[in-house]
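Give me structure tokens for this 429-residue protein.
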Amino acid sequence: MKFPQIRELLTGKQAGKKIKLRGWVARKRSSKKIAFLTIRDSTGRIQVSIIRENNEENYNIADKVGYESAVIIEGLLSKDDRAPGGFEIKASKIEIIGPSENFPISKDQSQEFLLDVRHLALRSERLTAMLKINSSVFEGLHTYLRKEDYTEVQPPMFTTAGSEGGSTLFELKYFDKMVYLSQSWQLYAENFIYALEKAYTIAPSFRAEKSKTARHVTEYWHAEVEATWMDFEGLLELMENVISAICENVAKKNVHELKVLNRDPKELLKIKPPFPRITYAEALDLLKKQEIDVPYGADLGGREERAIGKFFDKPVIVTRYPREIMAFYKKVDPENPKVCLNANLLAPEVGEIIDGSERESDMNKILESLKHEGLDPKDYDFYLDTRRYGSVPHSGFGMGVARVVMWLCGFDTIKDAIAFPRTMTRVKP
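Here you go.
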């Protein structure tokens, strides 16, 4: 007999037929006359009922079975408006395939405990939904970028220099020398594009940030894109199009998962270009309207970014941040040397999910910036070859995939948007 998935059963096409279902026991309750089980698989949940009078043996199994026991259920699929999903299985047989006793997760447990048993917590309906949405985010990224002729590449994870500042580098011993875990593909991206013109990667990045905010982890998946001949306006349009493509893919592929998380797919389909655009200076003015005073030249944190987002009904792009807080490779605005041609895309409820810029193509200006930041140009010699030999205008961005998932799922913390989050205090399970 074929084993259908629960999502198939909830369509009702097999109502009135005898079926055989595989899954795990998510919930149970019983009275003296009847026992109910909620069975889950990767596609959903369905109610199973066992009437004691007709089936004492299987009633006893259902009454005593442990949470998360793996079972095979045989019975009649029936329409029942009282059941979650509108259908239930009237079971004639329950077979325990993998028993489970004293499953450690119950209701109302702390976030820290759930992180301690994350390997088991992934079975929850909420985190299963997150994992599927996460997959659709990756699919949307790959599909859009490949359609636009971007080539996927794989940069190294061991590096000899940092791209985002030395204070957040993870240092480790590499045979007889010290190296770092990659903060970003940036130093390699600008080599790939001189061969491919348009390139992207989706790979882990590592930041030794001593931060305990709801948006920071030490390891995350980083989607990064770089292209020759792309000016600042082209970069902003690419950022908009990528986010729109992701939202559309999730809205179409994850209707059930979004419903589980109380998110409306129709709202995601409204995320279309153009997005609102404001400058850093204009962002400070908006913050003042909410009595948040940020001195010019200070970076914007999560609180400030979320406050800015409240003025808009979809993501907003903040451009032209002060030069002194920007990385050495970001191009200075020719019309205003105090700011860079950079942009952060802020998502409602989360804040920054994309950071991008037009890149500085003049080697002398990069050397000046490296020295200003106290960095040794010798550590960046191979990177500087991209300016020595055929430099052209180019732009790119980096996107924290988990922050996108956090936004789409409506989560309060990025830790819920990652299967096994890594923080200052957590490296297991």
